[in-house]
Structure formats: C-alpha cells, structure tokens
Design brief:
mainly alpha, 0% strand, single chain, Serine Threonine Protein Phosphatase 5, Tetratricopeptide repeat, 57 residues
Length: 57
C-alpha cells in the first residue's frame, strides 16, 4: 500500500496504473485513516486550489 500512496503523492500515473492492475487493495488505509482515493482527492483539491490562486495573480 505504501507504494500506491507514494505514487499518488508523486503524481506517478503509470505507477498507479501498474499497482491497480496488480490488484492492490484500494480499501486499505494509511496511518491517518485515508484510503488511496481520499488521498488522491485531497491532492487534486490542493493542486486545483493552487492553480486558481496563481490564475488570480
């Protein structure tokens, strides 16, 4: 699971695809209680917020 979380944090789409194809358990949680989906969602939200802030400058 650590590999999937690391790939998500690095936005390594190819690694994420490989791990998903290998059948990794998406319901598993990290030490903070996040699943891979909640982590990806929070990272995407942060990126979108940063892009919006840059556009408003």
């Amino acid at each position: 699971m650590e590999k999937l979380f690391a790939a998500i944090q690095k936005s390594d789409v190819e690694q994420v695809k490989q791990l998903l194809a290998s059948g990794i358990d998406l319901e598993q949680k990290d030490g903070n209680g996040q699943t891979a989906l909640t982590l990806a969602s929070s990272i995407k939200s942060s990126i979108c917020s940063s892009q919006q802030a840059l556009k408003s400058m």
